[in-house]
């Protein structure tokens, strides 16, 4: 356990003790807890956040990938402040949701959209839509891919349990998962075998096209093409869960790979820090939604604050130019970690895509979940606490990745690498 961390975060520790009596593990999301106790934040601005002890951190977690625009971007603050005066929620449809829908259709090459607030909701809706459209029940997901906190896809994903078909959480009835099939990421032969047996009962395959809940493992293009071909042959849909990828490359992973899935899901970064999610796709598929047709609802769906923030984010902030700026800084950070690994001669590999990257304490980047869970994560925790102790939030967990926002600077990257060099050197020596 890291002495500096404990010395610098006394108030977080006291708050944690208090929090535990009113919130399980003292947090509102399991992913915000770590040993020995998490820090509690009070404020964020640009690339920085501050905790209750007054420590300043350069933040690379960026709200688990939400804050591609950085914390409290002044233009978003202004936009939301004005929006609040015109109402935070109107109940009936908000005028500007139409404008936003068109922006998303253009940018992500989809025909129709429906809004909700979180990624979890949108993936849940997507699989319902796919089942209704195909009149089939089975869904194929990939091991290690995360699609939110609802029951139906919460299988074979962190916390790490290697045996196949293990629900990730107690409280999920086996029956709920009886129509969920699990395949290995980037393994075309395995996928084909599964499809040969079940293909005619499959409604959809859902995937994170760049897997970002086991670090960062992009799909091989050939693998993706194979999956699309099989989906066409067997009549099931392809769903891209772009909750993370949608904000980390200008037109998302579908734009990056030049593929058009039947449905995509967007969330996190698209509304500049406010809650907004989207299920979108081909007209004929999305047309199953409607009164007395497929259920889709949500009180906060397309609320004015999120819609206004999103229009502004997509048209003024996450522009091609600004995204290029962030890609470039991401390359610097990734390259910097590779240099450190060479310099110190340690087993550390780097994976990057768009505005994100991650490190693995392994000689090579894992190809799939099975390789990922074999990595010993003990060094990662030492690295993490030491990075925090020196004012850098490198990412949120060993299965996460950093996000470079349009408000990060080259100095932020330099500082990150200086601290990483020092921390990794010490880790090697101990
Ligand atoms: N899909 C993916 C790929 C995600 O990374 C996440 C969240 N990390 C979700 C879905 C769930 O989104 P939310 O937490 O907004 O419900």
From TrEMBL:
<dbReference type="InterPro" id="IPR015421">
    <property type="entry name" value="PyrdxlP-dep_Trfase_major"/>
</dbReference>
<dbReference type="InterPro" id="IPR005814">
    <property type="entry name" value="Aminotrans_3"/>
</dbReference>
<dbReference type="GO" id="GO:0042286">
    <property type="term" value="F:glutamate-1-semialdehyde 2,1-aminomutase activity"/>
</dbReference>
<comment type="similarity">
    <text>Belongs to the class-III pyridoxal-phosphate-dependent aminotransferase family.</text>
</comment>
<dbReference type="GO" id="GO:0030170">
    <property type="term" value="F:pyridoxal phosphate binding"/>
</dbReference>
<dbReference type="InterPro" id="IPR015424">
    <property type="entry name" value="PyrdxlP-dep_Trfase"/>
</dbReference>
<protein>
    <submittedName>
        <fullName>Glutamate-1-semialdehyde 2,1-aminomutase</fullName>
    </submittedName>
</protein>
<dbReference type="InterPro" id="IPR015422">
    <property type="entry name" value="PyrdxlP-dep_Trfase_small"/>
</dbReference>
<keyword id="KW-0413">Isomerase</keyword>
<dbReference type="Pfam" id="PF00202">
    <property type="entry name" value="Aminotran_3"/>
</dbReference>
<dbReference type="GO" id="GO:0008483">
    <property type="term" value="F:transaminase activity"/>
</dbReference>
<keyword id="KW-0663">Pyridoxal phosphate</keyword>
């Amino acid at each position: 356990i890291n002495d500096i961390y404990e010395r610098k975060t006394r108030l977080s520790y006291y708050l944690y003790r208090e929090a535990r009596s009113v919130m399980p593990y003292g947090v509102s999301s399991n992913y915000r807890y770590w040993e020995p106790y998490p820090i509690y934040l009070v404020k964020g601005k640009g690339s920085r956040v501050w905790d209750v002890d007054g420590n300043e951190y350069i933040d690379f977690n960026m709200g688990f990938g939400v804050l591609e625009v950085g914390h409290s971007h002044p233009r978003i603050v202004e936009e939301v402040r004005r929006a609040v005066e015109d109402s935070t929620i109107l109940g009936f449809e908000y005028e500007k949701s139409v404008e936003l829908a068109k922006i998303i259709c253009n940018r992500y090459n989809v025909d129709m959209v429906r809004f909700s607030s979180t990624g979890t909701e949108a993936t849940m809706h997507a699989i319902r839509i796919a089942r209704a459209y195909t009149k089939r029940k089975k869904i194929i997901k990939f091991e290690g891919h995360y699609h939110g906190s609802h029951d139906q896809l919460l299988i074979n994903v962190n916390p790490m349990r290697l045996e196949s078909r293990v629900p990730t959480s107690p409280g999920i009835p086996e029956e709920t998962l009886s129509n969920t099939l699990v395949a290995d990421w980037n393994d075309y032969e395995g996928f084909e075998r599964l499809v040969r047996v079940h293909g005619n009962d499959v409604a959809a395959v859902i995937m994170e096209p760049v897997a970002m809940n086991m670090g960062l493992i992009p799909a091989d293009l050939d693998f993706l093409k194979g999956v699309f071909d099989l989906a066409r042959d067997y009549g099931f849909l392809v769903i891209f869960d772009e909750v993370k990828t949608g904000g980390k490359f200008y037109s998302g992973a579908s734009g990056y790979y030049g593929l058009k899935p039947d449905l995509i899901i967007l969330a996190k970064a698209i509304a500049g820090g406010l809650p907004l999610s989207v299920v979108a796709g081909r007209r004929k598929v999305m047309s199953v939604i409607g009164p007395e047709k497929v259920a889709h609802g949500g009180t906060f769906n397309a609320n004015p604050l999120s819609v206004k923030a999103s229009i502004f984010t997509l048209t003024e902030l996450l522009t091609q130019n600004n995204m290029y700026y962030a890609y470039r800084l991401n390359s610097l950070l990734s390259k910097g970690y590779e240099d450190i690994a060479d310099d110190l001669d340690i087993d550390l590999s780097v994976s990057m895509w768009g505005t994100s990257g991650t490190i693995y304490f392994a000689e090579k980047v894992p190809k799939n979940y099975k390789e990922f869970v074999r990595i010993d994560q003990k060094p990662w925790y030492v690295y993490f606490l030491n990075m925090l102790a020196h004012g850098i939030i490198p990412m949120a967990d060993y299965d996460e990745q950093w996000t470079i926002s349009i408000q990060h600077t080259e100095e932020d990257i330099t500082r990150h690498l200086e601290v990483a060099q020092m921390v990794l050197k010490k880790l090697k020596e101990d």
